[in-house]
Write a structure and sequence with these properties.
mainly alpha; globular; two-stranded antiparallel sheet
Length: 195
């Protein structure tokens, strides 16, 4: 089912199938991570099976957030981050591993499909440009500080998360598609608010 949805979103958007598939995999990893976190229990994803989480994850936008909408935060972080050095100790843990992947994905999307980063990740144009200018070797140095900022996108919108979890738990593709479209509306609305 996820492949069908990924293919469908990719055909209807300007995203490549590879970027969309990677986003769905990141979303699924995030939902698995969220299921084990008590501070994110309001998302109610813990009762979902892996297949249901995969269905919920098949969105054309990130379900996770790393303060991508905060232009000042990222301008400061990307300008002042040191380059990673070979002798630097690698951090471990599920959150750290996820943030490392999410930052690389954000960098890749900003560099290759800049406008898509706005709806997919909630970045503004200046943040996209800052990621685009950042050398790849600076990303590992950001992981430690950015792990603390990992959260659910639209965490304050319980209606969205309740509807997403309900549609995924019922294995209702039509309801799931409606909720995913609602997420696109939330993404577009947040872009409009910044103007």
């Amino acid at each position: 089912m996820q492949d069908a949805i990924v293919g469908r979103w990719a055909r209807e958007s300007h995203l490549t199938a590879g970027i969309q598939r990677s986003l769905c995999e990141l979303n699924h990893r995030f939902l698995d991570l969220a299921a084990g976190r008590t501070e994110w229990s309001a998302m109610q994803v813990a009762p979902l099976t892996s297949a249901q989480r995969a269905a919920a994850a098949a969105c054309p936008y990130a379900l996770f957030d790393l303060r991508f909408a905060d232009e000042t935060h990222w301008r400061t972080r990307l300008q002042n981050s040191p380059s990673w050095q070979v002798q630097d100790e690698l951090m471990a843990g599920d959150d750290v591993s996820f943030v490392r992947l999410a930052l690389f994905f954000a960098w890749h999307v900003a560099a290759s499909a800049g406008l898509a980063a706005q709806l997919m990740l909630g970045m503004n144009l200046n943040t996209v440009a800052a990621f685009r200018r950042t050398p790849l070797n600076r990303l590992p140095a950001l992981v430690a500080s950015e792990t603390a900022h990992l959260s659910a996108r639209w965490s304050g919108c319980t209606g969205y998360w309740s509807a997403l979890v309900a549609a995924a738990s019922r294995s209702d593709p039509a309801a799931l598609r409606r909720v995913q479209l609602y997420g696109l509306q939330l993404a577009a609305a947040s872009r409009l608010e910044e103007r």
